[in-house]
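tl;dr need the bound structure. longer version: we got a ligand (NAP) that a collaborator sent over and nobodys looked at where it sits. i said id run it. heres the input, straight from their email, havent touched it
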Amino acid sequence: MAVRILDGKALAGELRAEVAAEVANKRALSNYVPGLGVILVGDDPASRSYVAAKQRACEAVGIYSQEILLPAAAGREEILAAVEQLNQDEQIDGVLVQLPLPDSEIEHEVIESIDPAKDVDGFHPMNVGRLVLGLPTLVPCTPNGILEMLRRSGIVLKGAHVVILGRSRIVGRPLSILLSQKGVDATVTVCHTRTRDFARYTREADIIVAAVGRPHTLSAAMVRPGAVVVDVGVNRIPDATRKTGYRLVGDVEFEEVSAVASAITPVPGGVGPMTIAMLLHNTAMAAARRREGRV
Ligand code: NAP
């Protein structure tokens, strides 16, 4: 049976159209425009291009966006002051600090300084706590994007065994919480670098999510025939045939795994576009809550 490609670009397009309609509705009926404020520290090219993509996406759906650019040498006070400026800005509903920061030591403090009601990345401890408790909250964009992609593709999660490779606070861990919550009802196994022989878990999985950040991590021999494979990894590998000198690949051996899986996400064009669409969704949701007191 031919593998089904889960087209994140197309699914994200659906979601973006829904957000655009909601934003237009708010503008017409409630007379406000949701706003996103992004803080970028330093000039890391990958971070710059992520921020630019987020701003273009905002513009396309009618969300106002504002960027605060700080030099790589910006200190703790300067970054905290920028967050506070956006926290206080009435036009801004979502505050996002592009990670990683040049000084990773202060990331926790910076995230905790974001107004939880504007925390559209869903990384603030209060929102993480609400997620764990199953309360309505701003859910981290990549895990929520994966869940939405699986739902919209009609993949059955109830009772499914999902094996997640990776336990980071932005992907693996929150995804494990989302998938195991009541109403989603998947059974989740989380693997990491201390897992002994993760292939013995992946070979039993109905759904595998690879989020490790290493190319060639998941091969065909590790996948049960008919399993669904979600590739979160974004890795740059040298490619002399490209103008940039590199190309993007995921964590999965795409060709060989496609021969055994029933469905698979491509890289690029899989999870990435869903992440950005979820950021727009979270910004619209944060705006509705703040301005209309609506959950
Ligand atoms: P991370 O913080 O570096 O975490 C990687 C996780 O993978 C860690 O839990 C690590 O285990 C585990 N791991 C690493 N090598 C492993 C191995 N050989 N076997 C089993 N587990 C292993 O990375 P991240 O931020 O979660 O990102 C993961 C990947 O997803 C990256 O390529 C990133 O660029 C990509 N990403 C994509 C999107 C998107 O929208 N498409 C969004 C976010 C991230 P330990 O905890 O034991 O170290």
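gonna send this back to them w/ a short note. The chain has a mean pLDDT of 97.
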